[in-house]
From TrEMBL:
One example GO MF annotation: monooxygenase activity
Key words of the record: Monooxygenase, Oxidoreductase
Source organism: Microvirga terrestris
Stretches assigned to the FAD-binding domain: 9-130
InterPro entries assigned: FAD-bd, FAD/NAD-bd_sf, Geranylgeranyl_reductase
Keyword Oxidoreductase assigned: yes
Presence of keyword Oxidoreductase: yes
Protein name as it appears in the record: FAD-dependent monooxygenase
Length: 384
């Protein structure tokens, strides 16, 4: 085909999955072109809760969470209809905004020699056994010998995810708040999870003493609450007076919340015989773990890590990678899917809360079962 450029490795999407793969492949001296549609750093809808596995991957990639100002989170407070259950987390979690984290990882990828092109939206992908063709809008057509698709929740024409069987009537919101010193002290060290009608919310500190309120609600719940962010927050704070205290007179740092629709929780990519080799799906393109367990970022990093590692060892055998990933994450996604269901509806919430209150160690065990094990990587994949 005429009028195109050819690249050895192309990564579509510079979130955690794409950037982590770029770091590893660049570090190994491979020629990597990463295409990211955002022109600069931006906020993403996320609870911004970093599990121990996510922290391990980030440390291996040379990301210093202390230097970035991440908060420390050691316990969980669960609220349901004004009642509280509390437990120590099985690990020290961290809180850091995605705007800071994703940018730090992209900078790291650049320092490892990856070429990052921003403001480039990939419009479509076609793939055959020999290569993938990427329609990169203003950049023109790019022939990629191997393609890593890491566009997160956004599907690209020609490579859409078959998301049947997943839950996708949910809406996610995120807002950051500046709290008073007293409110900050009350929240310090904890993640507060509130179960409310048709949804759940998480409140925690991130860098700079800022609080992140992230909320997942069904479409029906959103409509019942009054179809606006303010009415939804009113509902949550009405049902949970301690969280009302945390947010009283707090200053919202964005004009309106960031939101995301139709999150396909429970999706796992299973390769079939028609799938072309040399197209690796990473992060949310490979599997979407419900956010209740705070493992999505670790899964994204895990996939970037394993894909890069398997590519370095086996070349374009992406089907093997997808099989391995599905085996690695299937159980965790299934359990998180069930928990997500329970956390959404009244009877499930009551059972979940009762179990956690009478048996706090259950919360730790559930957290252990939904965690993505840190993978071993190709031994020549040199990482700091
Ligand atoms: C409500 C909610 C709360 C969550 N809370 C947590 C939490 O607390 N802890 C946790 O670990 N996980 C959480 N997650 C999950 C986590 O946010 C995701 O799993 C993670 O961001 C996936 O990373 P990714 O790299 O696959 O995708 P993303 O981070 O979404 O990155 C994809 C990138 O691709 C770019 N892109 C998209 N389309 C194109 C295109 N066509 N061309 C070029 N670039 C493109 C985007 O701009 C973006 O930068 C949460 C998710 C939701 C929905």
């Amino acid at each position: 085909m005429n009028g195109h450029r050819t690249e050895e490795l192309v990564i579509v999407g510079g979130g955690l999955a794409g950037a982590s793969a770029a770091c590893i492949l660049g570090r190994e001296g491979r020629s990597v072109l990463l295409l990211e549609r955002d022109v600069g750093a931006r906020h993403k809808v996320c609870g911004e809760f970093l599990s121990v596995e996510a922290q391990t991957y980030l440390a291996r990639l040379g990301i210093d969470l202390d230097a970035l100002g991440a908060s420390r989170i050691s316990h969980l407070r669960l609220y349901h209809r004004g009642k509280k259950a509390e437990a120590e987390l099985p690990f020290l979690a961290r809180g850091l905004s995605r705007k800071i984290l994703d940018e730090a990882l992209l900078e790291k990828a650049i320092s490892h020699g990856a070429q990052i092109m921003r403001g480039v939206t990939v419009r479509s992908i076609t793939a055959d056994e020999r290569a993938s063709w990427v329609d990169a809008g203003s950049l023109g057509r790019v022939r990629a010998e191997t393609l890593f698709l890491a566009s997160g929740k956004h599907d690209v024409r020609g490579a859409k995810r078959p998301i049947s069987g997943s839950i996708n009537d949910l809406i996610g919101f995120k807002m950051h708040y500046r709290l008073s010193e007293q409110q900050r002290t009350a929240l310090d060290g904890a993640i507060e999870v509130i179960l409310f009608d048709e949804g759940y919310a998480g409140l925690q500190l991130i860098e700079g003493g800022v609080a992140n309120l992230c909320l997942v609600v069904s479409q029906r719940g959103f409509e019942q609450a009054g179809k606006s962010w303010d009415s939804l927050v009113n509902q949550v704070t009405r049902e949970c007076p301690p969280v009302a205290d945390r947010l009283r007179n707090a200053i919202a740092l964005f004009e309106r919340p960031f939101s995301i629709f139709q999150i396909p929780y429970g999706f796992v990519h299973h390769p079939d015989w028609t799938e072309p080799g040399g197209l690796f799906r990473l992060g949310d393109q490979m599997g979407v773990i419900p956010s209740f367990t705070g493992e999505g970022m670790s899964m994204a990093l895990h996939s970037g890590y394993i894909a890069a590692s398997m590519f370095l060892r086996n070349g374009r055998a992406s089907t093997d990678f997808h099989r391995k990933m599905a085996a690695n994450v299937r159980q965790q996604i299934r359990l998180a899917f069930l928990l997500n269901k329970a956390a959404r509806f009244g009877p499930g919430q009551a059972v979940l809360f009762h179990l956690c209150r009478t048996w706090p160690s259950l919360m730790r065990q559930v957290a252990a079962f939904t965690r993505i094990r840190v993978g071993s990587i190709h031994k020549t994949a040199a990482l700091s």
